[in-house]
Write a structure and sequence with these properties.
Layout (H helix, E strand, L loop, with lengths): L1 H9 L5 E10 L2 E10 L5 E7 L6 E6 L2 E3 L10 E5 L3 E6 L2 E7 L8 E11 L3 E11 L6 E4 L4 H9 L3 E2 L5 E7 L5 E8 L14 E3 L5 E11 L4 E10 L15 E12 L8 E9 L4
Parallel strand pairs: 12-19
Antiparallel strand pairs: 1-2, 1-11, 2-8, 3-7, 4-5, 4-9, 6-7, 9-10, 13-14, 14-17, 15-18, 16-17, 18-19
Amino acid sequence: MSLFISLSFASQGDHVQMGATALKIGNEHYLAISLENSKLWHTYWKNPGDAGLEPKFKFEVDQKELTLKDLPWPTPKRYIEQGSMWAYGYSGQYAFFYKLDNKLKNKTLNIVGTWLVCKDICIPGTKTLDLVISNNLTGKSGTTLSDDQIIQIHSKLPKASKADNLSVFLTKGQKENQLAIHFILENVEMDLIKKNSNIITPYLSPPFDFKHEETYYDSGSKTLFGRFYVDWDGIYEDPIWNLPENGIFKSPMKIKFLLNYPKTTPSKILTHEFAEFTLS
């Protein structure tokens, strides 16, 4: 029944508009795929949260599939969906960026975008564009944002960095096949915390299955304490990958995440490597 309702509702309107722009930012040439959602509708990030699907884009030139190197995706917002489910994604206007090279001069780039857009229900969507790229690697197709808007979004993309005021620890959780990631962020000003956002937003990192962020702020020391419980999904793999009883992984485990503090600067992309976890 829910599928029927979704498909019927989808016929009432397209809730995501897509455009493509080839442009130069600084000394680099990029393809910017811009999306604009209807009011109150959202799509998803690379880690969609408790449910959802990330947008995907396929490229062809001369009827041959093409792979373009993507830049980090914009920092997602956090949405609370029905049943207290958390989602990470996008609303309003946003864009995804890919690097262009000289081989695409005077070519027509076929772009197929697919996504899941949600409000009270979720609707799959798709759009196909043909972008004619000029000799100077510029061009526009579809419902695009202005170049100034695209450049502004690009300037706020997350960047790989370090955070000296952040400490991260991995411990055994309270339940079977459960871990907990604890973090301590020092020198935190409350008015610099982003609204509708995690402090830390994890990328997908199988077999880690991240649950909801929990935080506590100590105003006296201006320190923020946080925790994620993490289900160990190695037990569902073939062959089964059991959580090590001695707390030492067979090889170091990497977890990548966004640090979304402070709101005045782009989010930081951080990677932590854990060779073991504390048992108690």
